[in-house]
Design goal:
single chain, DUF479 domain-containing protein
């Protein structure tokens, strides 16, 4: 799941460090894909650090439930099939695109149906003390924490998740993610066609997308 979908499960939490932990694995990958940390089994004497760890653990659990769900398998495959002809000749793999597209669509639908707000998410991240984040990263084994902290400041400043409220921007977000691997993933024509396909698929899942959140919440309650 993407940032805002992870946030949904703890949207009522008042603990900004727990919220940060729920999205930190993906933030770190965005900052530098070579960063590999495994703090999920660690314990610290400070509550703030342990809150980040608890959020990290929840992120892993949610992703496990999501990626093994019938919803994810069905819709990532469905998107793969409708996107395949649109990106013919592109270096991007249709399966990769289907995987990312369904996650971005879920973020968009949460925003446009009022289930969460972008301000709520960014307010939590902005409340976290940099020294606490730095201590967590160091405790987790990261040597050069400036790599992440510089990225994190830019992430909060630019607030690009605000664009997810516009479904037509989902294709642009897909392109930007693909550009981390391929310099020129799509032609302008392909990008325009992607937008149309994604908008249509969004309508297809509009009435049923909350099923996956309800399913995961039920599984979290049993664990």
């Amino acid at each position: 799941m993407n940032f805002l979908s992870h946030y949904y499960f703890d949207r009522h939490s008042a603990n900004c460090y727990h919220i940060l932990g729920t999205v930190l694995p993906d933030l770190l990958k965005n900052a530098d894909k070579t960063i590999i940390l495994h703090p999920e089994k660690l314990h610290h004497q400070k509550d703030t650090i342990n809150s980040i760890i608890a959020g990290w653990q929840k992120h892993l659990e949610i992703d496990k439930h999501f990626h093994s769900s019938e919803f994810f398998i069905r819709h990532s495959r469905g998107l793969k099939e409708v996107l395949r002809p649109v990106i013919e000749g592109s270096p991007v793999k249709p399966f990769f695109l289907g995987h990312i597209a369904i996650e971005l669509l879920l973020d968009n639908l949460l925003l446009t149906t009022g289930k969460i707000t972008v301000d709520g998410f960014y307010n939590h991240l902005g409340s976290c003390d940099e020294e606490v984040i730095n201590e967590f990263l160091t405790f987790s084994g990261m040597k050069n924490t400036d790599v992440f902290l510089t990225f994190f400041e830019a992430f909060k400043k630019h607030r690009y998740l605000e664009t997810y409220v516009d479904a037509s921007q989902v294709a642009y977000a897909l392109k930007r993610i693909c550009m981390r691997v391929w310099h020129h993933p799509f032609t302008p024509e392909q990008e325009a066609a992607l937008t149309g396909v994604i908008m249509n698929y969004r309508l297809k899942i509009y009435d049923s997308f909350m099923e996956i959140f309800e399913e995961i919440e039920e599984k979290l309650g049993k664990s």
